[in-house]
Amino acid sequence: MKTPYEILGAEGVQQLACAFYDAMDELPEVRGIRAMHAQDLTDVKQKLSDYLTGWMGGPSLYQAKQGTVCLTEPHKPYSIGPEETEQWLLCFNKALEKIAASDELKQMLEQPIKRIAAAVQNRQHALASKDDPNIIASC
Q1: Strand, helix or coil at 1?
Q2: Domain for residue 135, yes or no?
Q3: For the whole model, what pTM was predicted?
Q4: Is the pLDDT of residue 90 over 60?
Q5: Within a domain: 97
Q6: Residue 67 neighbours by CB under 8 Å, 6+ apart
Q7: I want to staple 2 with a disulfide (CB 3.0 to 4.6 A). Which of 6, 41, 66, 73 is the partner?
Q8: Is residue 120 a contact partner of residue 72, using CB atoms and an 8 Å limit?
Q9: How far apart (Å, rounded) are the C-alpha atoms in residues 22 and 34?
Q10: First vs last C-alpha separation in the chain
């Protein structure tokens, strides 16, 4: 069985990373996680591509550049709960669609990508909306 990296190749992984952040820019329902990112997504697209390359069975580019493959530390400053996790997964699934990933690849990645999303999540409950009139103070 081929690895996801062998299926996509370096260019395919790069396209997936770009499609992921393009989805984040385009989908209004993921504005919560888009707000956690800089206006210019160039650097983070490359970081995601580097990470996915190693994670999918290719060269360990992210580790070579960042010194680690830990994703929880860089996400620690952000409040990531169930809504943000679902938004992230939506972007990933839209990116797979955009690059016309095969059903085989989608199935191969479905559970592992959910585990990554769950590992980065750092709170269990949704935050109260600042627009909710029943909220006295928000976090």
Answers
A1: coil
A2: no
A3: 0.86
A4: yes
A5: yes
A6: none
A7: 6
A8: yes
A9: 10
A10: 47
Q: What type of residue sits at position 123?
A: R
CATH number of the domain at 43, please: 1.10.490.10
Question: What is the amino acid identity at position 1?
Answer: M
pLDDT at 131 over 60: no
Per the document, the length of the chain is 139
Q: Is residue 139 part of a domain?
A: no
**Sequence letter at residue 29:** E
Residues 6+ apart with CB under 8 A from 45: 17, 18, 20, 21
| Residues 33, 55: Cα–Cα separation, whole Å | 22
**Element of type H or E holding 108:** helix 103-120
- What's phi and psi for 94, nearest 5 deg? -65, -40
pLDDT band at 135 (very low <50, low <70, confident <90, very high): very low
- Rounded Cα distance, 38 and 23, in Å: 15
